[in-house]
Input
Amino acid sequence: MKNTGMCPKCGSPKIVRINGSAGAYGSGNNIILGATIFSAVNVNRYVCCACGFTEEWIDQEDIERLAVSKKAQIV
Output
């Protein structure tokens, strides 16, 4: 959905992006890498307004931070 602008389930182009955020006590759509919300990596959601299918994506510049994090496990 992020790359094509189309829902892979129903084919609808009605896609909205909900930006990830980090709030008090770790609220929001994020991955906390350290002890505070300032270490958070935001996870953005793409939602199909026709069928409700969702995808979650991390911005490219945050992927390296996540990969080297002590919390990440390479599988």
The chain has a mean pLDDT of 90. The CA atoms of residues 20 and 29 lie 5 Å apart.
